[in-house]
Amino acid sequence: MSDETTGHAEELTHTTDEGDVQMVDVGDKPDSKRRAVAAGEIRLQPSTIEAIREDGVGKGDVLATARIGAIQAVKHTWETIPMCHQIPITNVDTEFDLREDHIELEVAVGTTGKTGCEMEALEGVTTGLNVVWDMVKAVEKDDEGQYPDTGIENVRVLTKEKHRTE
């Protein structure tokens, strides 16, 4: 259970008293309208950012493909995070911000149900950024085939909202 005033967990909800893993029973919780926003960034070479801006990456439209990947990841979070519930996704918004040496991605997820959607937002961000990396890896590699200028960083939940439906 969570202490609503401090936000700190009083006990682990995904383990039994014996230490066995369990999925939390949310069956008795009322439905609530929920929204979570997560963000992260990928560091890239400025020349790669420019190629993305100009739609000059050989594999295709990087941001369109990353947007599809992010949305797909949101919808399938329950399949990749073992204790995550399958929830009805009501909306996914993705927003990319191209900077000089990195791209920022924000993913907002909406649902109406018994549990939050922050894990779905995080999955959307990490997968969306992984898709960007996959699309540009050929131009990001150095002469030894390494990625010294490339990195996914600062993945985090920005906001989490819950509004009871009546």
UniProtKB/TrEMBL annotation:
EC number: 4.6.1.17
GO terms, molecular function: cyclic pyranopterin monophosphate synthase activity
Ranges where the record places region Disordered: 1-31
Biased composition (Basic and acidic residues): 1-17
Active site: D134
Catalysis performed (reactions): (8S)-3',8-cyclo-7,8-dihydroguanosine 5'-triphosphate = cyclic pyranopterin phosphate + diphosphate
Listed pathway(s): Cofactor biosynthesis; molybdopterin biosynthesis
One Pfam family from the record: MoaC
Family, as annotated: Belongs to the MoaC family.
Assembly behavior: Homohexamer; trimer of dimers.
This protein's name: Probable cyclic pyranopterin monophosphate synthase
